[in-house]
């Protein structure tokens, strides 16, 4: 057999909108959302909480709009809330320990 076989051939249409489904617009919206999200990712550090929380668990990359971080730790979650004080442009956001919850069984 010398030819190739495509088990799922693509059907091309003249109009990009088929049955009200405008995939070109949807794809552009998804790209814009991803771009906005990626542009808003910042470094964050966690302060306070248990001393057994490792250093690698205290450093995160979060969306700029994030105000709470929940970290799994020893059968529960350590909760951190964003410090209301402003930070310098290059400094990471600071999240301070606000409490602990246990994982329900």
- Quick one: how many beta strands? 7
Bulk shape: extended
- Gyration radius (Cα, Å) is 23 Å
Number of helices: 1
Question: How would you state the average pLDDT, rounded?
Answer: 78
Q: Give the biggest beta sheet.
A: 5 strands, mixed
* Secondary-structure content class: alpha+beta
Which strand order do you get reading across the main beta sheet? 4-3-7-6-5
Description:
There is one protein chain. This protein is α+β, with helices and mostly antiparallel strands and 105 residues long. The chain has one helix at residues 23-39; strands at residues 17-18, 21-22, 41-47, 59-63, 68-73, 76-82, 93-102. The strands form 2 sheets. The protein has a 5-stranded mixed beta sheet with strand order 4-3-7-6-5. A two-stranded antiparallel ribbon has the order 1-2. A hairpin with a 2-residue loop joins strand 1 and strand 2 (21-22). The chain starts with 16 loop residues before the first strand and ends with a strand.
């Amino acid at each position: 057999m010398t030819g190739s076989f495509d088990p799922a051939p693509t059907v091309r249409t003249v109009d990009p909108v088929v049955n009200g489904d405008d995939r070109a617009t949807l794809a552009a919206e998804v790209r814009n959302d991803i771009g906005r999200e990626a542009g808003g990712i910042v470094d964050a550090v966690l302060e306070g909480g248990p001393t057994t929380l490792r250093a690698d668990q205290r450093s995160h990359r979060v969306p700029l709009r994030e105000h709470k971080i929940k970290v799994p730790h020893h059968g529960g979650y350590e909760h951190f809330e964003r410090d209301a004080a402003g930070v310098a442009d290059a400094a990471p956001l600071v999240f301070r320990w606000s409490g602990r919850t246990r994982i329900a069984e």
